[in-house]
Write a structure and sequence with these properties.
322 residues, alpha+beta, OB fold (Dihydrolipoamide Acetyltransferase, E2P), Arc Repressor Mutant, subunit A, 2 domains, 3-stranded antiparallel beta sheet, 12 strands, 49% helix, flat
């Protein structure tokens, strides 16, 4: 049997996935089908381990939460993953870690589901590796979104859709995954929702102005397909739209620079005020308010830094630098 590829997928999309599939052959692997058609048996995850806990008491079942810029992966290691369990038993958080593991779906009833990862390999890594993973995962996700758009435009289903995707250059595994995903998931908001998650992720490692400029054609494709923006051949309307876009870009650039400065200030303050166990959130709000930031801006900065893997909550209401 060929070894299954380790898919790169953001936590946001992974946690949306609730379709499981297995071929009717002996020793056939179970697949988790994501909304963009990733047919996941194995996956590769890199992020910040923010919480590790022994949830199995005497059995020694360890759970670690790994944050990427879009959400959190839940990873379990027990008696059948002895090396990973031993690793987690000694892990000090926060820490950048990388995991190759198997996707698992648990359905306790018809209305709820939980996805998790069972690690095959797990180790400490670096922020640089995490950032490279974000960029590569964003590229792979956008590739799947492009294939998904081809599928939606075609109006085809089943074998006809599969052949259409293969003709467009989509690989066999993704083509089969998209056929199943389109039948199972509500695709109305999938394109917009996941593309926003990708943009949020890439903004943590690439300057927002560069990504926004590069993604304008993609953004317009999404708008055109959802019908949110109607194009016009009228020159005046087109000119006004371009002027509005220029103003929006300038405003976005100014906001990005202010956020960047606020994040740097926040990290300096967090470092200065932390005596070892973290800093209470209300203390941070009070201190940052004296520097001219509103409570809303403080919340935005804290959320951005946690998404960036720069700080975390060791306890509710306490923030600490990674």
């Amino acid at each position: 049997m060929m070894r299954e590829p380790a898919w790169r997928i953001f936590a946001h999309e992974f946690n949306m996935s609730d379709l499981q599939y297995s071929e009717d052959t002996e020793k056939s692997p179970n697949y988790l089908i994501s909304p963009t058609g990733a047919r996941i048996n194995r996956l590769f995850v890199v992020g910040v381990a923010t919480e590790v806990e022994n949830v199995g008491r005497s059995e020694g079942l360890w759970r670690v939460r790994i944050a990427d810029p879009t959400g959190v992966f839940t990873v379990y290691a027990g008696q059948y993953q002895p090396d990973a369990a031993a690793f987690l038993s000694e892990l000090e958080v926060p820490q950048f870690i990388a995991v190759v593991g198997k996707a698992r779906l648990f359905n306790p009833n018809e209305t709820s589901f939980y996805v998790s990862v069972r690690p095959k390999e797990i180790n400490v890594t670096t922020e640089e590796v995490r950032n490279n993973w974000i960029v590569t995962t964003a590229e792979r996700t956008l590739d799947r979104l492009e294939a998904l758009k081809i599928a939606q435009r075609s109006g085809l289903h089943g074998d006809e859709l599969r052949e259409k995707l293969l003709e467009s250059g989509t690989n066999v595994s993704l083509a089969e995954g998209i056929v199943m995903a389109i039948e199972h998931y509500d695709m109305h908001d999938i394109l917009k929702d996941i593309s926003k998650a990708v943009e949020s992720a890439i903004n943590t490692v690439v300057p927002a102005s560069e990504f926004t400029t590069a993604s304008v054609p993609i953004k317009r494709d999404f708008e055109a397909e959802t019908g949110e923006t109607r194009s016009s051949d009228d020159g005046a309307v087109e000119s006004e739209r371009e002027q509005n876009e220029n103003v929006e870009t300038e405003n976005a650039d100014a906001k990005t620079e202010r956020l960047k400065a606020n994040k740097a200030l926040f990290m300096d303050v967090l470092k200065d005020l932390d005596s070892g166990s973290g800093v209470p959130y209300d203390e941070l709000i009070e201190y940052m308010s004296s520097k001219g930031l509103s409570e809303g801006e403080v919340e935005e900065v804290a959320r951005e830094l946690m998404n960036d893997g720069k700080c975390y909550e060791p306890k509710i209401g306490i923030l600490k630098l990674v």
